[in-house]
Amino acid sequence: MTTATESMVETHLEDLDVSRSERFAERMLSAFNESALVLMTSLGHRVGLFDAIAGAGWLASHALARDAGLDERYVREWLAVMVTAGVVDYDPASQTYRLPAEHARFLTRDSVPNNLAATAQYIPVIATVESDLVGCFRNGGGLSYERYERFHEVMAEDSAQTVVSALFDVIVPMVPGLHQRLENGIRVADVGCGSGRAMLTLAAEYPNSRFWGFDLCAEPLERARAEAQALGLKNLIFERRDLAEQTLAEPYDLVTAFDAVHDQRDPAGLLRSIRCALARDGLFLMQDIAGSSELHRNLSHPLGPLLYAVSTAHCTSVSLGQGGPGLGTMWGEELAERMLRDAGFRSIDKCRLAHDIMNVYFVASVGSD
Fold this sequence. Notes:
One of its GO terms (molecular function) is methyltransferase activity. Residues 183-298 form the Methyltransferase domain. This protein is an alpha/beta fold. It has two domains: 4-119, Orthogonal Bundle (Arc Repressor Mutant, subunit A); 126-365, Vaccinia Virus protein VP39 (Rossmann fold). Helix content is 48%, strand content 15%. The chain has helices at residues 4-14, 18-46, 49-53, 61-68, 72-84, 101-104, 116-119, 122-127, 130-139, 151-162, 167-171, 178-184, 197-205, 218-231, 267-277, 304-321, 333-342; strands spanning 59-60, 89-91, 96-98, 187-191, 210-215, 236-240, 252-258, 278-289, 347-351, 359-365. Helix 14 links the parallel strand 5 (210-215) and strand 6 (236-240). Helix 4 (61-68) packs across helix 5. It is globular and about 70 Å long. The protein starts with a helix and ends with a strand. 36% of the residues are buried.
């Protein structure tokens, strides 16, 4: 005899598009494999395996372990992931491995700004707070920056790829006359500077200009100060400051914010503070995530799921954790431009870089449109 529940299940199954259901299951199984690959790619990057195997030809696992200074058993298991994922070639007869040059150009430290292995680190970083996020989902609120293990380290490496590598060839030239002004000497501030990679690079290149880096977190600032001292830079100051509470009082000729505004406790207040701190002919250069404020306009975004995942697990959380609005990573270009105008910026230009599909640059001033 068929029970009422069994009858309901059978009716429900009859309504399913079985082909669609099976395609979804296959996609999820593929996602499990790809997720495993991302985690192992991050690990391989951190321990230097991609750098050790790139350009070395065919190697046995013990030779690769020796060259990388690692334990052979773990290296061999890691190689099995890379082989079954199609990243590393394997010769069963000689039991040797090779990283094709076509793959190495996206996986080694020499491949900046195209090192996808460095970008893979975001996934394990946000995974460390999964249990904490369960509490956030249930109770609201957010997490502090300090809760995210290695976040500033990974951000610094990402900044080296997307920002620092393009500073002199693309970013400075996108603002007419900026190079000469920096050569002559101007005052520059970077808000949310993190480990200060951009300011360290600019200060070394333009000794006549003076630079300040501001951030809420002590850990990356300590690293930035140590590097500035090691480089002997006298024109650069790093200062811990909560910009939601302390305004930028000095007149600056240039203020920069690299992927920092949407995380803040008071993004609108920060933009107003920046606008008020600019000299009369000053400029604000803001790098942030390229995408729309409207979900349906991001359906074809090449990094949509990744960016929304980072938003869920980090950017939204750290803003809410400070009592902020939780704009999220994908606050979008429309909202960003509207908030810039509300803060008093009248002239706003947008630029994109060929090597960077993730970000957009806003160049804003208080001049007329």
